[in-house]
From TrEMBL:
Protein name as catalogued: Secreted protein
High-level lineage: Bacteria, Bacillati, Actinomycetota, Actinomycetes, Kitasatosporales
Keyword Transmembrane helix attached: yes
Keyword Membrane: yes
Species this chain originates from: Streptomyces pakalii
Keywords linked to the UniProt accession: Membrane, Transmembrane, Transmembrane helix
Membrane-crossing residue ranges in chain numbering: 6-26
Amino acid sequence: MTTAIIIIAVVAVVAIAAFFLLRGRLAGGGRGLRSRFGPEYDRVVARHGGDTEAAERELDERVKRHGAIEERPLTEEARARYAARWAGAQELFVESPERSLAEADALLADLSRERGFPDGENFEDRTDAISVHHAAHVDGYRRVHTARNGDASTEDRREALVEARKLFDALLAGGAAGREHGNRNLVKGRGTS
């Protein structure tokens, strides 16, 4: 009888431990996705009306579809060319915020394509792929894409360009650790600083 009680106690402890381990792993998926995607996680949850399970399924699918993308390195010539284009887009902002954002939008599409992200006209597919690798900065790209057309104020457009610069810098860096490409921000009403 004592052996039976010991066996039942051991089985109960193992079952409880398994329950908590499984529960922790399931909960960790959400924490892992939240940690990986940051503000993008919150954006997707909001788009799904607060349904975190639906949002996490979407983000898991993104990781499955785009997680294996290996960003191709850029040559120094390509880096210089993109840096010059970005400087031109920023300078154009004073004269024409709409044209400046259109150039920044096209530049980010070209740069992301050259780095190995999806080609083509599907903006959402490209930003979904970028979000897997640069989740902290993809929103700036979306803001530029949206603000270039429409009724955005000049200040909203300026802020969008400043946010998009973070993705530009991340893509231009080419994965080189510790590499800085200047932290030029637009000063209100001016070009580059």
